[in-house]
Fold this protein.
Amino acid sequence: MKNNKRRYPDLHDHIEELKRRGLLQVIDRQIDKDSELHPLVRWQFVGGMEESERKAFLFTNIVNAKGRRYDIPVLVGGLAANREIYSVGMGCPVEEIQSKWDQALQNPIPPVLVENPECQEVVHEGKNLLGEGMGLDMLSIPISTPGFDSAPTLTATNVITKDPITGGQNMGTYRCALKASDRLVVRMATRVGGAGGYLHYLAWKKAGHKTMPCAVVLGCPPYVSFMGPQKMPIGVDEFDIAGGLAGEAIEITMAKTVDLKVPAQAEIVLEGFIDLEKLEPEAPFGESHGHVALEEFNMPMTITAITHRNKPVIPSYLSQVAPSESSVIKRVAYEPLFFNYLKSTLGIRGVKKVSLHEPLTGLLRVTLITVERDMPKTEIWRALYGAAFFKGDCGKICVAINDDIDPDNADALLWAMAYRMNPVKDVQTLDHRGQGHGPKRETEGEEDSTLLMDATMKGDMPPLALPTKEYMENAKNIWDELGLPKLRPQSPWFGYSLGDWLPQWDDAARRAAQGDYLENGKISKAQQQSGLTPETKFRPQ
Ligand SMILES: Cc1cc2nc3c(=O)[nH]c(=O)nc-3n(C[C@H](O)[C@H](O)[C@H](O)COP(=O)(O)O)c2cc1C
């Protein structure tokens, strides 16, 4: 009997909601999944569009290069082409994403086991998995980076494994390259802070097993999908936190051929066993650190069953060079964790925001910490050290800034560094950092290091020399009235006080703007002094 009690949306409900809000682009034109599909969506990220203009793409008419048709539609950008799409999946406005994560982490809800789930409406086993067009080969899995990638690769996965002793499950988003109709190769990061599934792999091996059960889930209820890329402490069951996000227990079910629990409303589940004895070359594959991962040995998995819903949809994340769907999905999830750590765990009160720099650097390398104006230097440095070492593979370069600096505007960051930082006093480099996620991993064993920078104001400064807000806003109204080209205001776009400013100067500026500069001339005439050298500082009383 089906359990119909759930109130949280599954992927189909989510797609309907995107459509309702005008966030879905349905592509009915025939598209080659191997050479056209990802490049088309990529233009949203490299075509000079605003983040807010990006959409989810649903492809309904898919072929491969040989003209073979595929029944299953593919959704790209459907979970995180931008923050708005992510927020639809989170069931809250963009501004509340952080508090929703906080609340879920503090109030986990364990999942509930159900029978006859949607994800097993169709089951393929045995010889149904073998041959062209069968098994994995029936799935419309796109190639992400045509020209470099060597296989159609699953990217929007929730890969489920369990600890052989405790039975505790882990769920992570790991890429899987298709190799045969019944075999794929899973890549789990082995570095410190890498894949939780890799710790299970080691544990199964240590216990003397030859294979490890594994379920690769494609397309979950969004609350569950979002758990795949999220960094949870080892031992925390992601289904519990997904329940916290949903505000109710997530329905799970037993997989058919492996002893693992999978989301009942999954679109497709690939069940099987990972080989613990042999590894198989996988990649090249365009990676989220922005370079192509070259061929390396990873984990072959033999498929024992493919189960799916009656009309499944396959999600595929657009990853590789940031910004991308992958960087958006990680950014909105990781930034709250960093902020929480600095604010609550380390108790640093003046921290206002943590931003992981996205374009090209891809979140893991550059961290911006926004702090209050009068924060003690020691607390700024505690925040810098904390952010640098909270995660082993994040925070190679950490910069503290004030809240008038837009962390997403690299020009504004360079401006803060240029005028607010004294390199000999405000910069530290620290030894002994692991290489993290990046192309340097190929250079065996070499350590990286850390750069910390306090680019906050060390005292009052004169205002930023742009017309103040009221004048810029008024001018913008005239601009619009004249029908001049569309503006995309970039912070800072108006002048404001940075502390070193007097009310008398406000009065003088107002008089000047009202055409009364001669009045100012009378005032300054009365302030003339003799016996001074030019450029002597003057502060009217
Ligand atoms: C699109 C995408 C692809 C990813 N691919 C991999 C991968 O192939 N291997 C990996 O270990 N992590 C990959 N990650 C990062 C992990 O999902 C992330 O580190 C997550 O915290 C892993 O969960 P875990 O800590 O439970 O292992 C990917 C993330 C995204 C968003």
